[in-house]
Each structure stands twice: as C-alpha cells, then as structure tokens.
Design a protein that fits this description.
Elements: H1 12-19, E1 24-25, E2 27-32, E3 38-43, E4 46-50, E5 55-61, E6 75-80, H2 86-91, E7 105-107, E8 113-115, E9 120-132, E10 135-147, E11 155-157, E12 160-162
Antiparallel strand pairs: 1-11, 2-3, 2-6, 4-5, 5-10, 6-9, 7-8, 9-10, 11-12
Length: about 170
Amino acid sequence: MTLTVADLTVTGDQLRAAVGTFPSGVTVVTTLKEDGSDVGLTVSAFSSLSLEPAMVVLAVDNGSTSLPYLTVGAPLGISVLADGQGPVAYQFSRRGVDRFAGVDTHRGGRGVALLDGAAAWFAGEIVHAYPGGDHTILTVAVHDCGTHESARPLLYQRGQVHDWPEYQI
C-alpha cells in the first residue's frame, strides 16, 4: 500500500504544535544576487547531512522572497546565531526591510556574508534542491566552517527564540 497526501489526517496546526516542542538552533542563511548584493533569511530547519563529503541540509519556505536566489550552484553562507542574537533572527525574518542594516558581517567563501558573533558558520555551495511540501529542501556542500567555542547557540522552540539564561532544559 502506498501512502498518499490524501491519507494524511494531521493538520498543519497539529504538526506545528508537536514539532514546536523540539528545540532547535536558529541560522541566518545568505547568498548573493547576480549583481553581487547580499540576500539573507532566517532558517530554523537546518541539520548536518554527511561528514564524508561534508554536507548540511536546510529547508526554505516556498513563499520566501529569498528562495529564487537559492539555486543549485549558488554560494551559501550559514551563520548559527548565538545567545543574544534573537533580534537578528527576527530582523532576517521580516519582509520589506534591509535585513543587513546594523548587522556586522565578514565575507566567507565565494564572497557570502557571514554574521559576526555567530556561534558557528558554514560556507559552501548548493548542490541539490528538492520539493518538500510547502518547503524546498537544499543540500549544501560545505567548503569551510568554524566555531566560536565560547558562544552558546540561540534556541528556537514553540515559535520563539530563547537565550540560554531564560531557557532551562
């Protein structure tokens, strides 16, 4: 028997509530437009994929205004936000604003912006893009990465970001 979408009875609200109990990190994903200007967005659906070769995976909402720039072969920067960078997460999730305004960055591989003060960072290239319901799944070959050992990651749970002091596991 093959399961079809029609067989699924879980609503989006039910899934959001259940999945939302699982805390995750928060990233800002960046790439470049054809003219060299920066594009960035907040992504919480991020994970390691492979150690050999080094790859990560992320999922981007199909309604994202940044998605058209996230194409196979495009350079990609991923900054894992650190404790205290909640306002940055919200800034990169808003539409109609300069998401990079007031945010300090440095350049990673192929010129992508990486956020200063992030707990970790990755620079790479999009290898595959797959449909995934209302999201697009991107696999990324990692060419370079690093961490700030003393930084603790910003956490996302139940639709909100949490700094470590206020969040007890």
